[in-house]
Design brief:
single chain; mainly alpha; Cytochrome Bc1 Complex, Chain D, domain 2; 2 strands; globular
């Protein structure tokens, strides 16, 4: 058995993993920009989204973890409403992934 087949399989799996991550990033960006109501852009600054809200924290400076974002989006924080009734678990995970990845560039 040569090493080519396992290496090719590993490269293929990495490509699939990257594609799925990119899909989650895109889905999360859509939640941030369009699907959350009110839109995240109204309150938060996030360079990747082109938003400059000043009510909530500047996410580029805060650099929250995905867990922090998911918890805040689900349950609300301060004047930020809870979105657990209006966004699905999948949407919340996607926006958490998006914010984490967008702020760690």
């Amino acid at each position: 058995m040569t090493l080519r087949a396992p290496l090719a399989l590993a490269a293929c799996l990495l490509t699939i993993g990257s594609a799925l991550a990119d899909e989650q990033f895109d889905a999360g960006k859509k939640v941030f920009l369009e699907q959350a109501q009110p839109s995240c852009t109204i309150c938060h600054t996030l360079n990747d989204a082109g938003s400059s809200g000043e009510i909530g924290p500047n996410l580029d400076e805060l650099k929250p973890s995905a867990d922090q974002v998911a918890n805040a989006v689900s349950g609300g924080v301060g004047i930020m409403p809870a979105f657990d009734g209006s966004l699905s678990d999948e949407q919340i995970k996607a926006v958490a992934y998006y914010v984490k990845k967008a702020t760690s560039k």
